[in-house]
């Protein structure tokens, strides 16, 4: 297979922060960047020489993106497979429509994982309020999650009784939901796998992730956890990437429960918030790796050069005050990454802070201290 070499254009479905940062990496390698996004103010358009404003189900617009590109990738899985197939008539789409189809609906994704023997917590997929109530009755304390369209904890309700479950189904207002037993978590991990158009595969060292109210707060690598557990996590992620036949990136979010089980939470066929530290920790960032993978270039090294961490910056930081990015930069080894989003809403991901250190604890301290100063605290 001949690689797609620098000078060519890469098309990206989605111009949020992930598309934007992929675009930066593509530009560094010498590629041109084309982006399609429904939002005329999409952050990714800043790096695109061709910016197409169109909804993700606009087949004609997706075909136009592909006509002008040598390869098409994506930063969001909520793109209809019809759109991906429309693009695929003009340029290879990596990942392909089948892998995205499997991942994009939570119920379908879980069915795929279960059918292939990958470990999951107890769950049920339901399509009406009665079945939702019955599932909560069986599973006990649970989380009801919409199968489509949810992210950052949206479209999810925590429930304790059958009656809660019935109510949650109508509050969420989705056609299908999964009901997941609420797990007692020891720690959350993720593993990012890159699989190239040539078949070459590499897993990153796991990331340790801290969420609050369903939203990622910080992530750090290396995890400092038992090397055997880390090895199992990497093998699990590699196995899922192979079973999906993904080309590009696959992030596998995992739970380690207090009773010692390693379970899959969910999959993402694209760059992932928990690997933003790969820009500091690893020789090859996830964004560069995605470009290499979809262009059929040799994959880059994924071993850790130095411990690194990130802390998310949410729209909440703008509530009733103006944050201070200059103060955040006074912490040695801290960097500020802002996505150029015009309006800050609570819960919206506006940027992140990254840092490195001699140990993961030190790297985490750098971003936490930088975050304090970002918020104007002395
Ligand atoms: P994102 O897009 O940010 O990854 P999401 O909206 O897809 O989030 P999930 O990954 O399903 O949401 O859940 C977000 C977080 O909520 C998890 O990382 C975990 O902290 C918590 N959580 C989710 N499911 C469970 C569960 N079954 N038991 C315990 N905690 C859970
Ligand atoms: Mg998640």
Brief descriptors of the model:
globular; 378 residues; 4-stranded parallel beta sheet; 9-stranded antiparallel beta sheet; binds magnesium ion; binds adenosine-5'-triphosphate; 17 strands; alpha+beta
Give a quick summary of the entry.
Helix content is 32%, strand content 27%. By secondary structure, it is α+β, with helices and mostly antiparallel strands.
Describe the structure.
The protein is globular, with a radius of gyration of 20 Å. The protein is α+β, with helices and mostly antiparallel strands. The chain has helices at residues 17-29, 59-67, 81-88, 97-104, 106-115, 129-139, 162-172, 227-244, 278-281, 286-295, 325-328, 360-374; strands spanning 9-13, 32-37, 50-53, 71-74, 123-126, 142-146, 156-159, 177-181, 185-195, 201-203, 207-212, 215-221, 248-257, 262-268, 308-314, 334-338, 349-356. The longest helix is centred in the middle third of the chain and has 18 residues, at 227-244. The mean pLDDT is 97. Strands 9, 10, 11, 12, 13, 14, 15, 16 and 17 form a 9-stranded antiparallel β-sheet that branches. It starts with 8 loop residues before the first strand and ends with a helix. Bound molecules: adenosine-5'-triphosphate and magnesium ion. Magnesium ion (MG) binds next to strand 14. Adenosine-5'-triphosphate is lined by residues 121, 143, 145, 150-154, 180, 182-183, 185, 188, 211, 214, 216, 253, 265-266.
């Amino acid at each position: 297979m001949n690689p797609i070499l620098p000078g060519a254009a890469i098309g990206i479905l989605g111009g949020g922060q992930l598309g934007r940062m992929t675009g930066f990496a593509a530009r560094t390698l010498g590629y041109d960047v084309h982006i399609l996004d429904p939002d005329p103010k999409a952050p990714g358009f800043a790096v695109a020489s061709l910016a197409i404003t169109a909804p993700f189900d606009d087949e004609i617009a997706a075909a136009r993106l592909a006509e002008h590109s040598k390869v098409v990738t994506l930063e969001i899985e909520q793109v209809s497979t019809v759109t991906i197939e429309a693009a695929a008539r003009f340029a290879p789409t990596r990942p392909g429509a089948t892998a995205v189809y499997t991942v994009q609906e939570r119920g379908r994704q879980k069915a795929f994982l279960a059918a292939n023997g990958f470990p999951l917590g107890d769950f049920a997929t339901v399509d009406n309020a009665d079945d939702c109530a019955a599932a909560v009755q069986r599973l006990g304390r649970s989380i009801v999650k919409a199968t489509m369209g949810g992210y950052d904890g949206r479209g999810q309700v925590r429930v304790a009784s059958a009656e809660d479950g019935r109510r949650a189904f109508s509050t969420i207002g989705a056609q299908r939901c999964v009901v997941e037993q609420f797990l007692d978590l020891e720690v959350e991990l993720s593993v990012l796998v890159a699989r190239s158009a040539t078949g070459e595969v590499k897993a990153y060292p796991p990331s340790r992730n801290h969420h609050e109210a369903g939203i990622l707060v910080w992530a750090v690598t290396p995890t400092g956890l038992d090397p055997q557990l880390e090895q199992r996590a990497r093998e699990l992620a590699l196995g899922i990437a192979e079973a999906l036949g993904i080309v590009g990136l696959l992030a596998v979010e995992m739970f380690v429960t207090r009773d010692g089980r390693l379970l899959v939470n969910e999959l993402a066929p694209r760059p992932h918030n928990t690997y933003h530290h790969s820009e500091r920790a690893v020789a090859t960032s996830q964004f560069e790796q995605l470009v290499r993978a979809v262009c059929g270039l040799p994959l880059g090294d994924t071993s850790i050069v130095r411990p690194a961490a990130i802390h998310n910056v949410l729209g909440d930081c703008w509530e009733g005050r103006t944050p201070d990015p200059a103060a955040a930069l006074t912490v040695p080894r801290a960097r500020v990454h802002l996505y150029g989003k015009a309006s800050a809403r609570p819960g919206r991901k506006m940027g992140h802070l990254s840092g490195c250190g001699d140990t993961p604890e030190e790297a985490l301290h750098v971003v936490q201290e930088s975050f304090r100063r970002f918020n104007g605290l002395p």
